[in-house]
Amino acid sequence: MYTRRDALTRLSALAGAAVAAACTTRKADAVTAPAPESAQSPTTTTATRMPALFLAHGAPPLLEDSLWMSELAAWGQALPRPKAILSLSAHWEARPVSIGATQAIPLIYDFYGFPDHFYRLKYPSPGAPAVAARVRDLLRGAGVGYTDDPGRGLDHGTWVPLMPMYPQADIPVLQISLPGLDPKTLFALGRALAPLRDEGVLIIGSGFLTHNMRAFSRETPAWAAEFDRWCSETLAKHDVDALLDYQARGPATRIALPTVEHFVPVIVAAGAADAFSTRPQVSFPVTGFAFGSFTKRSVQYS
User: Fold this and answer.
1) What is the pTM of this model?
2) Does domain 4-301 have CATH number 2.40.50.140?
3) Tens of pLDDT along 183-223?
4) Domain locations in the chain?
5) What is the rounded distance in angstroms from the CA atom of residue 259 to the CA atom of residue 261?
């Protein structure tokens, strides 16, 4: 039986070759995948309201991909500096909403089969107890149950993309769980958390819009490009009905998302945007593909 361990072992084996061949792969992607949407570059926000983001968080090999690192670094520099970051990662699903560590504790290395140096990486961001207190207030006000999990550190869905975006690790970070995978519940959660955007908190959903661990390749398969295109169009229009019904309306969804935990964080970000506008400004600061079928498309709601 093909297992998740098999998939990650294969990813580790492919990572070195992919990084070494990055230039060649990027040339191939220009033919086999949609061109990067340079017109939809990071939106520099000057108002006090923070944007809401969805990040394609990659895996440890992201940190050895110079193009991806530079794209995330440029995005971080274009954003207004947050007072704190609230992250919801595909790698933490727990009911009810669980509020992670509010003090700096060791990272979670929730991956295996990679070189040893990835397990020695540190991201010593400060804890965010004031944000946790505010999250509790907002959840109570919205009638959303929650619990505290003070021993739960940041997983790689949070700290891997933050390393290039905020390399000094000097911004307080809080991670909370996804309370299941139901789209309507997650959209409502994003709306409940939205007031944090006016308080200097950057809300981040972290995952992947396509995530088939058996579909590593040199070239981007047609189904991945098609699903990525559908995501681009649906998110750009802020078509909430289509987004919440993505499993039925998206093309080749069962291939693109054999499991859906990596997709649904974008729904939280969309909810945090929808609370202020039914037509928020949407941009895609990072696009393209990694390992063939994994779209790097990331989203900024301003």
Assistant:
1) 0.86
2) no
3) 999 999 999 999 999 999 999 999 999 999 887 888 999 99
4) 4-301
5) 6
